[in-house]
Amino acid sequence: MSIQVQQLNKHFNQYAALADINLDFHDGELVALLGPSGCGKTTLLRIIAGLEQADSGSVIIRGEDASDLHVRERNVGFVFQHYALFRHMTVFENVAFGLRVKSRSERPAEAAIRVRVKELLDLVQLSHVAERYPTQLSGGQRQRVALARALAVQPKVLLLDEPFGALDAQVRKELRRWLRELHDELHVTSLFVTHDQEEALEVADRVVLMNAGRVEQIGTPAEVYDQPASSFVHSFLGSVNQFRGRVAEQGLGIGEQWLGGPISAHHLAQGSAAIAYVRPHELEILPADAPGGISATITRLLPMGPRIRVELRGNGDTNGAHFEAELSKEEAKAFTSGQGVRLVAKQAQLYPDYQI
Ligand SMILES: Nc1ncnc2c1ncn2[C@@H]1O[C@H](COP(=O)(O)OP(=O)(O)OP(=O)(O)O)[C@@H](O)[C@H]1O
């Protein structure tokens, strides 16, 4: 086990930023810490780095309790969203920096430093800009320099806080693919913070879902997406339609209507208030005269590349609620805007509805 976080708690005044966090990160894996703004991701990363002190609990790095170790002694590399490269130093010198400031006994000889920096610049594909200054680079190139700089001292752990957050969507996409490839080559245990679910699902070996200072779920991208442990995870990862009603034998009863289909009700009692979560691609649209289902009206058909997004408004018991389905172009041919239809879930997950 590379990093173990045990019973970690952190308050800012009365506010619990982290509540009883327990996590194990394996050697060589790339893990995303994912959650909405303010859920505690950065605080957790900073405590692991040694930049912030926890109120209680411990951080164990490669078997050694690091809780009382200074940030310099933890051997972690960082890359932040706005990583301040030294403006007055060339790219080469920025990457060499961490090696040059080592104590005399640990510092490699000048020739070895030059070889190492050259290797790192090759790795991040920036050898051709080695003599430039940071202001002469694009945002994406700067972040790659920041990564090379963090890797120069051969950290045991790499911590990245929204490393591509400030970049535009296209560059972000390229860099995250690049980060994945780089990680496959180096296998440095890496944790990266993001609030972008697509980024987390695409890049990470495992994803930690956080909400309000707590861990909601940890698992592979497929596990957290296909088997969400809570309604929070379900709705945070991709869009969902919500249907409020009562648990019945046939599924979910909404007034006189039924949301049919195979509904997984966990251990909810018959008659209890529940919300069904149905992803757009799990929602089937049937003609208005079909038996069962929920009555709705199509408000818009939006082409989204090869798929059509169908926006709907509920009628009767779901009056005014907005729903969204996803169809192939072929399937969508049967429908037009303004048409009355019935909605049936091909698959749905029920959660207790505490608001009723
Ligand atoms: N130094 C501080 N003093 C007081 N409150 C703080 C401090 N740092 C963080 N917080 C609070 O702790 C909570 C968690 O903050 P944190 O930065 O860890 O969240 P986050 O998930 O990284 O959010 P974001 O995605 O917006 O960066 C927030 O409510 C924040 O306001």
Q: Can you walk me through this structure?
A:
The protein is α+β, with helices and mostly antiparallel strands. Helices cover 25% and strands 36% of the residues. The chain has nine helices and 21 strands. Strand 4 and strand 5 (64-65) form a beta hairpin. Helix 2 packs across helix 3, helix 2 runs parallel beside helix 4 (139-152) and helix 3 (110-123) packs across helix 4 (139-152). The longest helix has 18 residues, at 169-186. The two termini are 44 Å apart. The model has no long low-confidence stretch (mean pLDDT 90). Adenosine-5'-triphosphate (ATP) binds at residues 12, 17, 35, 37-43, 195. This is Sulfate ABC transporter ATP-binding protein. Keywords: ATP-binding, Cell membrane, Membrane, Nucleotide-binding, Sulfate transport, Translocase, Transport. It holds the Pfam family ABC_tran.
